Amino acid sequence: MPSRPHPDVARGWIIPIGGKLADDAILDRFVALSGGSSARIAVIPTASSEPDIGTYYERVFAKHGVRNAKSLRFERRSDCDDSDWLDWLSSATGVFITGGNQLKLTATLGGTPVAKLMRIRNAAGVHIAGTSAGAAFLSEHMIAFGEEGATPRAGMVTMCAGLGLTNRVIVDQHFRQRDRLGRLLTALAYNPFSVGLGVDEDTAAFISPDEVVEVMGSGAVTLVDPSEVEFSSIAEAKPGEAVTLLGVKVHVLTPGATFNLHTRQPFGASVFASGD
Asked: Which of the residues are catalytic?
């Protein structure tokens, strides 16, 4: 479960990024939220099989004006007890989780002091971003893997527990590029409480402390709201069989558009900008 927020401190932003990040404005905003040139960014490259990905992101953040960015490569569960790395993580003003394999994140970090500390620090105001696998990992309910296709089908997606910064959303990444609407709909059929965020590559969903989703980047966020589902055949469907879902709302949010996770109300970019 997400950690309880501090009564006098706003929770940190939660920022799922859909992968293949090219828009400098996304990282510029993450850095600005985290303190600008004074930010301390902890990079967690655990999901990646590329040995130099942590160093790569240290250089990326340096180009964005960050003087202190450090890769904390938690490769084994025993690494998650390293006191020096935990001290560095506890003093970070922003955390960036790289892409790769989200199951490596859950298998390595789940239930460790690192995962607990990230939840506590986010509740205390530290901003946490994740790209690709790192984006999927941010929520309580995580898509582990699944099949491509636009039609929801029983057994199309496998779920597991994620980091647990929020239970309000389920994130799917590389969304339009990998045809993942069906598996997100299937995941939401399992758990209609959550809102689905299908985040395109080079696009980010900035989730504010007051639970408003703001879109940045070159693509879109497909937002799936199952709160008014009238009928679902998921409980009776056989493996591989198409699932009937009646009453699902689907919004496509382009940069500047927002969605309030409390009221379930979307705003287009022009409407929001005008204050109407």
From this structure: 132, 174, 201
